[in-house]
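Severity: low
Component: inverse-folding endpoint
Summary: output formatting inconsistent between runs
Steps to reproduce: submit the following structure tokens with default settings.
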């Protein structure tokens, strides 16, 4: 789940460079619309997580995005 969430967030940020500002302002409408248009529209039709991600963002599940997220997070926290 965390790996998929990191991958979706990465692609959401590519589509919405001002995502942090919208969230800080309490405006989650763009996030909901993005998820509805990229993920939720498929419902239970995809047979696997990879199939869903390929439809939503054009690639199967990849650990790259979670590794990038964790590296950035812990580098900042622990000044690595």
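Observed output (run 2 of 3):
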């Amino acid at each position: 789940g965390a790996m998929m969430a990191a991958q979706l967030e990465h692609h959401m940020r590519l589509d919405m460079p001002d995502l942090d500002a919208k969230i800080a302002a309490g405006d989650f409408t763009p996030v909901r619309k993005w998820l509805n248009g990229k993920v939720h529209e498929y419902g239970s039709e995809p047979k696997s997580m990879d199939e869903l991600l390929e439809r939503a963002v054009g690639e199967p599940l990849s650990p790259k995005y979670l590794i990038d997220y964790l590296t950035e997070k812990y580098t900042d926290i622990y000044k690595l």
